[in-house]
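On clarity, I found the account of how folds are encoded harder to follow than it need be. For illustration, here is how one protein appears when written out as sequence plus structure tokens:

:::
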Amino acid sequence: MLKDTLRAVFQPKFFALIKHRRYSRKGFMSDLIAGLIVGVVAIPLAIAFGIASGVSPQQGLITAIIAGFIISFLGGSHVQIGGPTGAFIVIVYGIVAKFGMSGLIIATVLAGIMLILMGVLKLGSVIKFIPYPIVVGFTSGIAVVIFSSQLKDFMGLDAGAVPAEFIDKWIFYIRHIGDAHAAALGVGALTVAIIALWPKVTRRIPGSLVAIVAMTGGGLALESFFGIPLDTIGSRFPELAGGAPLPRPETPTITMETITLLIPPAFTIAILGAIESLLSAMVADGVTGKKHHANTELIAQGVANVVTPFFGGIPATGAIARTMTNINNGGRTPVAGLVHAVFLLLIYLFLMPLAVHIPLACLAGVLIMVAYNMSEWRSFRLLLRNPRSDVIVLVVTFFLTVVFDLTIAIEIGLLMAILLFVKRITETSTISVISDEIKNSESDEYSDAETLHLPEGVEVYEINGPFFFGIANKFDEFDLSGKQKRTRLRIIRMRKVPFIDSTGLHNLRNLWKRSQREKIQLILSGVRPEVRKTIEKSGFAAELGDYYICSHINEAVEKAWQYK
């Protein structure tokens, strides 16, 4: 039983490729080239994401290597490329600042466990339905926070630590704008210009790599010929000058208090990882025509985030930009992702000493372009034209992400979306009262329907929509005083009730008990099989009696005429 369940939720695409032996030499060469190109693209991004997250550049690369390999090896997508992404910068930086690296390890492992459970519980399809305004709100908010965090290095400011709070940070920048380092500002601006304009030259070579090579050379020239030094990776991480050794597995000290404190940020990491990886996989499916397995993808993301932090890595997920680079360069199987990880490992082992010369202003420029591409400002602008409830969710999620905390933003954003959804469903669900005649058609087209006349003292309450906690109390809006109206029987017409929850059942049972006290009989009409199953399971069907549960209004009206 357990084996069958695991087989249903865990179907790695790489294993299927090996099992069916449908791999050719031509396919391997295509994946090899794509993997190498994606590896080249991932180098500057992994380094930049690592530094921006408050850890070292090698930790960014370690994440791209280990998590990238695991996600391709175990994942449910043919072409997904995994690694560190901009979405995690804000949350990782906050965890490292508050709890240190040991806290980040615990939070990432907890997030990985949550992702595995999501996959095992088959929540892959549910995650895709997180409201779009929430996704755009926190994505745009993250982009603004990333942009704000990079301005110090972009302008070459040497004015001490930047405040952590968003508003204080901008006050700091305004006060010190006159202290900007002209050379650093020029390097940052040129980096942005190269990345923005390079696609017009070619898309085969990533603009970020071109910018880093060009600006590193330019920085060395400025120092050698003009005596103008720039802050570089080497000045911030001097230990990299001798190379980057392979990290050893590390186990943090774990206490229940720490776990309790880290569950909320871990949940945020898990939700972000699930959304971004499945969104990336869906985009890839649209381009390749293939279909990913959502639950397998979540399990793979979870395993990657459980394993990677013990080697010094940070949270990882599927990366849309690198996945699309993989597809555009011919990658069609998970082999391309494996090649990308192996290539990054070779870079890490043999070329890391060269990274010490990369100017920090250049990396800031790379991340500013990442923030711009993340911002989804066009989608944000279009969503502002949507219904007011969507706009409220969008703006509040964005504001909370920027000014307060990403964890708070996601939690409150989801809560608001749920409440507004319930409100919208409540507004579309109605209960109407009929006491004279009724149509016997089960559709809304009554032109050819027979009119059924109701006996005196019979009322029909028609429920239109789900009978759940949002509308269950609507019976209280009616005058249910049966003695004044001489009511002797009530028909509750439920033909348009797709489901009923515990609150709806509770209120239905209360209506029946009140009717009993007033000696008024209750009849249920048009009860759908799934609703009837719920009513029977609750025991209410036995209390009311099967005789008074009718499948059609004709049957209910006929029993009303017979009732004395």
